[in-house]
Here is the input.
Amino acid sequence: MADPKKVFIFDDNTDILDLCTIILEDAGYEIKTSSTSNHIIDQVNAYTPDIIFMDNWLPDVGGIDATRALKSDEKLKSIPVIYFSANNDVMALADQAGADGYLSKPFDIHELEDIIIKHLPVI
Here is the structure.
């Protein structure tokens, strides 16, 4: 059996992190979370996820700048970044950040799983 897909979630809301971890671990994914996008390149290089969820409102380095940093890194730019936010303009923010997709909060379990399936190649 293939190794579980790795998901990295950046969000400063611990309830969201806990909820996503429970849902995605149940679905067979390996999860890492961070409440800050500081040193984003180092954090992502250390884990090498298959997909990243990025909140908009993060302390210090916001989601847009963090996503842009990932997308301008030669080694990391191919990792899909899904922007997720309760902001009404999440689609515009995702576009501005250069994200590969977006998910509006609040979301349901199926939306979360569907967007991962959509952006991860099936092996």
Remarks:
- The chain has one domain: 15-30+40-119.
- The mean pLDDT is 94.
- The radius of gyration is 13 Å.
